[in-house]
Amino acid sequence: MPVALPNGQPGLLAKGELGNAVKRELPLYDMDGVHDPELLMALFRDYTFLASAYLLEPCDILYRQTALYLENLDLVRGFRHKHWLFTKEYIIKYSNHPVATGGSPIVTWLPNQLNAVLEAIDEAAGHLDLTKLPTERRTEIEGIITRAATQRRVLAREVEELKQKFPNQDHLASG
Questions:
Q1: Closest C-alpha to 166, from 89, 88, 91, 92
Q2: For residue 66, which of 15, 27, 51, 148 sits 20 to 30 Å off, Cα-Cα?
Q3: Other CB atoms closer than 10 Å to residue 98's CB: what's the count?
Q4: Rounded to the nearest 5 degrees, what angle is found at the Cα of 16, between the Cα atoms of 11 and 71?
Q5: Is 101 in a helix, a strand, or coil?
Q6: Sequence-separated (6 or more) residues with CB below 8 Å from residue 129
């Protein structure tokens, strides 16, 4: 079933409006008087095609929302990553003070926040079958997943190295 109209505009399925249109606009017909087998087969074929789209529409919407959720998480990841980069470049590089302005451990607090977003990306990605996404969308989502996995490895290594310069970070977090 095409999701776009012949003029290129999004159709009911693309907009997530097929179910409501079916409920609102599809008339009920009494088929008791129809005996032509070809007409009955054509009507049955069209009915099953529409019923499949109608029943699968919520799944399609949820799938698109999961991909959109991943994109939004990636924006949060980008913000958290930049915050961490600024902290490393402008604070950690020039100070030996183990505590940030809010009293949190300088080496572990922001990475923990970033890691929470990276874990959320991993979890959401686990609910998505990438093979069911259009190629362009799949490439975008694969990029998000790959970036998150790489960043997680780099972040863990950075934190371990910085803990040497700033010992007792775990103690500061619980104290």
A1: 92
A2: 51
A3: 17
A4: 110
A5: coil
A6: none
The model's pLDDT over 138-169, given as tens digits with 9 standing for 90+, comes to 999 999 999 999 999 999 999 999 988 888 77
Q: Is the dihedral of CA 7, 8, 14, 15 positive or negative?
A: negative
What six digits make up the tokens of 22? 């079916």
Question: How far apart (Å, rounded) are the C-alpha atoms in residues 174 and 82?
Answer: 25
User: If you search the block for the tokens 């009293």, which residue do you land on?
Assistant: 103
The dihedral region occupied by 16, where left means phi > 0, alpha psi between -120 and 50, and beta the remainder, is left
The C-alpha atoms of residue 135 and residue 130 are separated, in whole angstroms, by: 9
Q: What are the extents of the domains in the chain?
A: 61-174
For 83, the token pair is 């915050």
* DSSP class of 9: S
Q: Which residues contact 31 (CB under 8 A, 6 or more apart)?
A: 40, 43
CA dihedral 33, 19, 57, 61 (to 10 degrees): 180
Residue 99's DSSP bridge partners are 105
Cβ proximity of 108 and 169 under 8 Å: yes
Residue 126, pLDDT above cutoff 90: yes
Cβ partners under 8 Å of residue 149, min gap 6: 122
- From CA 93, how far away is CA 103, in angstroms rounded? 18
